[in-house]
Design a protein that fits this description.
Layout: E1 2-9, H1 30-44, E2 49-52, H2 54-59, H3 61-69, E3 73-76, H4 89-107, E4 113-114, H5 128-134, E5 139-140, E6 164-165, E7 168-169, E8 173-174, E9 179-182, E10 185-188, H6 192-197, H7 200-212, E11 218-221, H8 237-244, H9 250-260, E12 262-264, H10 266-273
Amino acid sequence: MTNLLTFDIEEWFHANYDGLTPDRTKGSSFRAHMDTLLQMCSDAGCKATFFTLGCIGEDYPDIVKAIAREGHDVASHGYAHELAYKQTREEFRADVQKSVDILEDLTGTKVLGYRAPSWSIVESNLHYLEVLEEMGFLYDASIFPVKTFLYGIPTAKREIHKPIVNGRELHLYEVPMSVMRVAGRNVGYSGGFYFRFFPEFVIRKAMQSANRRGESSIVYLHPREVDPSEHKLDLPSKEHFIHYYNVKGTQAKLANILGAFAFTSISEHLKGQHT
């Protein structure tokens, strides 16, 4: 069973907490983080999907070209990490289109997938998936079947599917984030905070269970999560815990998971399993 490896390609200061004005003049170790992630993919012999901000394409065109050159998916993460549910439908369309134009110009290949910043496709703006369909996307990967104070659609389907919006099945796939059932609730386990929070044996067990059911597990991480020395946002205690807990252990845990399971990109998986 092949699992799906994804990264949200953004800087350490890209976040969507209210009232946050990070000091972007501090610089970053973004290039080093990307070298690390690309090398880890190479070492594991796997392909991944890199959901990339359009502004990253403007600031680091060589890195976007390197991602594509090494055979990975370059997918859209929007232009500047703005929450989709705070945009009008037309603002959303313009934002996604801006990112697509930048990324396609750099790579020379069609952008097939999209993931909203901070999982910001929720019930109130689910119809924005129609925009992605109209733009010719193969898939969306923005829905997290959980409920948190930041995001989530807890009743969403857990498997890859073609979503129904306004009574119509769309001509694109929804690739929801992986969850496990804990005390009757959906809980993430294989990405971001959940990947950092849960011990490796819990992640392995959940992935094995999903694979036995014939389901792919989806890993997602950010470049900043492989470097505990990267600059940090000044956040309240709860948000700081969510954003940074156990960053120091992420790189080694990811290397172990990549060595224990088979991974590929979302578009390669869809071509092989859902066409």
